[in-house]
Specification:
This protein has one domain (about 5-280). The protein is built from 9 helices and no strands. The chain has helices at about 5-10, 25-50, 65-90, 100-120, 135-150, 150-185, 200-220, 225-245, 250-270. The longest helix is centred in the middle third of the chain and has 33 residues, at about 150-185. The protein is globular. The relative contact order is 0.18.
């Protein structure tokens, strides 16, 4: 890894060589719309059926996979072939120091176990294994890494992060993307087909937004690798489901939101808002 985080933020954040030139806010809005369109249409069809508004729903398993073609077409439209090559390069950029992968795998587990320990220590219920068994969580970890690499993370950290980070810097980009990413999840808390149904909205959204800061730091440290983001995302979902952070009780979700926010704030403070940004991450 070349120059450390401190050497990058001392210079102005301008578009990196090879980055698509068309990075105006309307083009970024098109990218966001591409990520929302398919999943929201599919999720809302199930919610509408649940409320008796329609008698059918679209296949829920297609929600995330609907992102891939829409994102590819939109990136090609706003960034041309160079934009598509840039995205593909980030999806294939898997080489990173071992410690980054260990953090990506382990940090969600630490937060999940820490939340369980705090809730259990105060006499609360810790539904380990009720929502997802350990074998299922391990299988999901492998499947989820590939799923998120080609869908969600291709959008949030592959297409949007480098563009927004060039304009607003690491801290601003991670918070803006975190807010949009959190809003993107809103239908899940009302969708009867999802484990997230019924979760309290505010801690759920805070947890997601704070997680965006942590993923940005890891992706930047890994020179822009979306693979690292996908590993973290899969570990996040698998460990939080197995331990019960997103289970029927909400105490662990509240604690996890606090722990994640504190960890994200500490990372912002320690890195002076640069979130481990290197020159390689901006290429």
């Amino acid at each position: 890894m070349s120059p450390g985080p401190g050497s990058v933020a001392d210079s102005q954040l301008v578009a990196a060589p090879g980055r698509p030139e068309d990075q105006g806010w309307p083009q970024l809005a098109y990218l966001v719309l591409a990520v929302f369109a398919g999943p929201w249409t599919i999720w809302l069809s199930r919610i509408a059926q649940d409320h008796g508004l329609i008698g059918w729903h679209l296949p829920q398993g297609l929600a995330l996979w609907s992102i891939s073609p829409a994102l590819a077409l939109t990136v090609l439209s706003v960034g041309g072939r160079s934009g598509l090559r840039d995205l593909g390069d980030r999806l294939l950029r898997w080489r990173a120091p071992t410690w980054i992968y260990l953090v990506a795998l382990g940090l969600p587990v630490v937060i999940a176990v820490g939340s369980a320990a705090l809730v259990s220590g105060t006499g609360g219920d810790v539904p380990v294994g009720r929502l997802m068994s350990l074998p299922a969580a391990l299988i999901y970890l492998g499947y989820g890494t590939g799923l998120f690499l080609l869908t969600e993370e291709a959008a949030w950290r592959g297409a949007l992060l480098p563009r927004v980070q060039d304009r607003l810097g690491p801290a601003g980009a991670s918070l803006i993307i975190g807010a949009v990413w959190a809003a993107w999840h809103l239908p899940l808390v009302a969708n009867p087909a999802e484990h997230d149904r019924g979760l309290p909205v505010m801690p759920f959204l805070i947890l997601i937004a704070a997680t965006s800061v942590l993923i940005t730091g890891l992706v930047n440290a890994a020179a822009g690798s979306v693979v690292v983001a996908a590993v973290f995302h899969a570990s996040f979902d698998a460990s939080y489901s197995y331990v019960g952070v997103v289970g029927p009780g909400h105490a662990m979700l509240n604690v996890a939101a606090v722990l994640t926010t504190v960890t994200a704030a500490a990372l912002l403070l320690v890195t002076d808002g640069r979130l481990l940004l290197t020159r390689e991450a901006r290429r």
